[in-house]
Amino acid sequence: MSCSRTLALIAASTIGLIMTAPTAGQTTGRKYPEGMAPPPVKWKGLVAGIDNLDDAVKARLGEHTGPLDWYSSRKHEFKVPGSDLTDNIHMRGDTMIDTIEAVTPPEGCETVAAVRAKLGEPEHVTILSKQRIISYAGKGFRFVANNADGKIVGVACFPPKRHVPEGEPKVCDSSKQKQGPLPPVSNAKPWEGLKVGFSVVPLGLDEKMLPTLKASEREYKIHDVLQARCCYLSYQGTSVALVGADIFGMLGVDLAKLRAKLAEEGHPNVVVAMSHTHAAPDTIGVYGFYPKEYVQSVKQALYQSVKDAAKAAKPVAQVKVVSVDLPLDGARVAEISRNCRNPGLVNPQLAVLTFHGADGKVLGTIVHYACHPETLDAEKHKMFSADYVGPLRDYVDKALGGTTVFLNGALGGMVSGDSPGRRPVDIKLLGEKLAKYVVEYAEKAQPTTEHTLRFVHRPIQICPTNIKFKAMAALKGGKAWLTDGRIPTELNYIRIGSAELITIPGELLPEIGFDIQARMTGYPRMIVCLANDELGYIVPGYDFNEKDYEEGMSVGAAMGPMIRLAAYQLAEQGAK
Ligand SMILES: [Zn+2]
Questions:
Q1: Residue spans of alpha helices (H) in 369-509
Q2: Contact present, 104 and 4 (Cβ < 8 Å)
Q3: What residues contact residue 342 under an 8 Å CB cut-off, 6+ apart?
Q4: C-alpha of residue 178 to centroid of ligand 1, in Å
Q5: What distance in angstroms lies between residue 412's CA and the mean position of ligand 1's atoms?
Q6: Rounded to the nearest whole angstrom, what is the distance from the C-alpha of residue 265 to the centroid of ligand 1?
Q7: Cα of 276 to ligand 1 centre, how many Å?
């Protein structure tokens, strides 16, 4: 048996062993630092990481639902008088309060000024179009305030750990950028020569495929059909294929042949944007089993989706665009997305592009939002599903017409669902909640008056320092994947009228996402993750702690800074 084969076998078993799911159950999983004094601010008399949510406390906090099954922990949702929103408490274990995400501010912290008076200068502020995220992570808090009146409308409390160190920029301000529906554009000049086609192709995960999967998945039910949906654009000699696919993840090396074949056939600019649904087979093989037959079927479906969409291309008169920051009241996008690694640090931007024929009808829609599709507890319910992306697309297809393609955003560490639970009904609740926003804002979208289609490919090579990725490289045939010991991957810059997309080969953390978006000049500004590669989490260099979960699932500490720099350069280039 050849050495590399042995290496590959060792690698496979090692990877399966070490690539474990997050243990902290969507909480910070941190203890309150020993010897550290409690903060000068308490939330309803409670300190996250110190106090327990026992019956007496629950009674004092009032009417609530829970404990809800929530990953390996528990979640309680407390009603807030006079509000539709809830104050949520995430537990570590049965009673320890790990994270509080509330609309009710701590006593004496009702305004930005009052918070500063109590806690001093913040370590970092992210300023968005209408609200700002004010971070005191070193003291265990993040606040959300309205820009207009400085009112605190959300607070996240968690065991303290400084996030942004001294020396790093203290502010990320994107409030000057266009955001929200644009003023009406009348008599917009129609595009001449833009053609767009859409396709929907099942990935082939059906009853016949189940026996080829790992043992524990062979009894799973297909809750909804996993699909590849392509939006194929061509204009003035440039073509771009954006494929939104219900794939957990795939490595660039596994997509290379498919993309080379498509390029030979006249489709050089293909972006496979994986939704990262967790209710799908592990098409990376990161958990020890590589479903070869299913991967083959997926590749075939991806190929077909591009071909079908290219063939279906029709003239487009208008491309309408809109992006908006959804409300962050309660230190999350309520019932849609939250951040369990850095509570309160959530990118609430929703972006929508609609493509209209000469008759004004919608041929198709691109929806961009950042959130892990892991609403459904697939292992518990033994089901495969597109997760929230499925009901989202179905709802938008019905409401707007045409075909909806979903692209995921900076969902890394760890932006995930804020649904009441992880049941099949929860994917519908979350998906349709987001879909209603899509339809609401799509109806306010205005035609982009910029008529351009651009694609800039930006290769990059990263040295894997994480033993798991080295093991994965061995599994993927070592030299076949690595170039001089580096992992070759890519970013891409795409411009569709005024809309700007930068693609990222993995799961970018929102704080890097905010910084990149702040340097983009288009409208909307979208960062598309898990695009043409899935190299795990992309963590800021200043916050790379080897013991933490996301870091354990990343190529290494160099990835964050390298991706950030390459994206800045693309944004600059794009602005020219
Ligand atoms: Zn992930």
A1: 378-381, 389-400, 424-442, 467-475
A2: no
A3: 137, 142, 163, 413, 509, 510, 511
A4: 29
A5: 6
A6: 33
A7: 7
Distance of alpha carbon 126 from alpha carbon 229, whole angstroms: 34
What is the 70 CA–ligand 1 centroid distance (Å)? 17
What is the distance between the alpha carbons of residues 122 and 62, in angstroms, rounded to a whole number? Answer: 31
Q: How far is the CA of 491 from the centre of ligand 1 (A)?
A: 18
Is the CA virtual torsion 549, 551, 552, 553 positive or negative? positive
Residue 559 CA, ligand 1 centroid: distance in Å: 16
Give the pLDDT mean for 120-135.
98
Residue 525 has pLDDT above 60, yes or no: yes
The C-alpha angle with vertex 565 and arms to 560 and 571, in degrees rounded to 5, equals 125
Q: What pTM, to 2 d.p., does this model score?
A: 0.96
How close is the Cα of 273 to the center of ligand 1, in Å?
Answer: 14
Residue 312 has pLDDT above 90, yes or no: yes
Q: Which residue has the tokens 């003239």?
A: 315
The confidence score (pLDDT) of residue 473 equals: 78
- Please tell me whether the peptide bond between 510 and the residue prior to it is cis, using omega within 30 degrees of 0: no
Q: Phi and psi dihedrals of 191, rounded to 5?
A: -65, 145
286: CA distance to ligand 1 center in Å? 12
DSSP lists the bridge partners of residue 462 as 487
Q: What are phi and psi of 94, to 5 degrees?
A: -85, -35
Residues pairing with 52 in the sheet: 96
Cα-to-centroid distance, 161 and ligand 1 (Å) = 22
407 close to 247: Cβ distance less than 8 angstroms: no
Calculate how far, in angstroms, residue 415's C-alpha sits from the geometric centre of ligand 1. 9
Name the pairing type of β-strands 152-157 and 141-146: antiparallel
Mean pLDDT, residues 275-284: 97
> How many Å lie between the centroid of ligand 1 and the Cα of residue 536?
7
Residue 56 Cα to ligand 1 midpoint, Å, equals: 37
Q: Could you say which DSSP state residue 248 is in?
A: S
Q: Are 404 and 396 in contact (CB under 8 A)?
A: yes
